[in-house]
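sry for the spam today, last one i promise. struct tokens for design, 282 residues
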């Protein structure tokens, strides 16, 4: 279990991360930073190694088939609903030319490191999203890349995917975290190779230019366990910085993050939530 992690067995040095940074320094056996700003409104530094980790919860077995009004984004056959993209913190997503280069086989898609992110062709405001994924079983490469991916709502707001089995990370970088802002309420992850599921209920921010009329909120189940409970987002996801809102469109793509790790995905679908169809009313 996570609590039995023996940090001393981890390699002493790691390669540069996808962000061009070296791996986080460690404090009390946990990687993280204390030279970062405080998370706005909180007592913790961004990626604070001293921030308490949540309890471990072993999830039950649950698989969610799409309901009748779901927009199918990936049914295991092809990437026809996706475009190659680059997610840039905190400004969002840039669509790139050409077809997406991730591998599709045996009913799943698999990240091909170095080929960029994937973005949905369709754009969303308030949305329910179901995503199933499996962490790779290989443990090669940089520790901070291991099983690292994420679901970016509107190409900006990440729900973190990360393999922390025998590989601890700062609490706001754990699987199910609102990365850099809020740790999950519980660690409910499954082991590498096992299929897992996120059910995400995202309320988009209401903006007037760069003025926030109403912040974004996210509610997230990981393997049926509540890990974010109508959590108020502090702004688009950023690394080693304090989040703040920027002007953005009312709707934007869902992005799957390519963080140099061959995470697999299957059974991805979405449902538009009513409020986004009546802008200004919520
Ligand atoms: Mg990530």
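last one done:
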């Amino acid at each position: 279990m996570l609590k039995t992690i023996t940090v001393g067995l981890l390699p002493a040095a790691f390669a540069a991360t996808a962000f061009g940074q070296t791996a986080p320094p460690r404090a009390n056996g946990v990687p993280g930073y204390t030279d970062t700003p405080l998370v706005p409104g909180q007592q913790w530094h961004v990626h604070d190694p001293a921030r308490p980790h949540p309890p471990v919860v072993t999830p039950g077995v649950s698989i969610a088939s799409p309901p009748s009004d779901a927009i199918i984004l990936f049914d295991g056959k092809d990437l026809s609903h996706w475009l190659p993209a680059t997610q840039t913190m905190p400004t969002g997503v840039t669509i790139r030319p050409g077809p997406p280069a991730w591998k599709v086989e045996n009913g799943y898609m698999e990240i091909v490191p170095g080929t960029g992110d994937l973005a949905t062709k369709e754009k969303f405001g308030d949305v329910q999203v179901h995503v199933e994924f499996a962490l790779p079983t290989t443990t090669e490469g940089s520790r901070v890349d291991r099983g690292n991916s994420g679901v970016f709502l509107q190409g900006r707001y990440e729900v973190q995917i990360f393999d922390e089995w025998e590989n601890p990370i700062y609490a706001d970088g754990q699987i199910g975290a609102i990365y850099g802002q809020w740790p999950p309420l519980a660690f409910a992850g499954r082991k590498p190779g096992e299929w897992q599921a996120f059910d995400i209920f995202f309320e988009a921010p209401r903006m007037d230019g760069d003025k926030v009329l109403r912040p974004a909120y996210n509610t997230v189940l990981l393997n049926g366990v509540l890990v974010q409970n109508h959590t108020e987002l502090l702004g688009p996801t950023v690394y080693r910085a304090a989040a703040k809102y920027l002007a953005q469109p009312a709707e934007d793509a869902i992005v799957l993050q390519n963080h140099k790790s061959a995470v697999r995905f299957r059974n991805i679908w979405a449902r538009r939530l009513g409020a986004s169809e009546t802008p200004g009313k919520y």
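The longest strand covers residues 264-272. ok im logging off now
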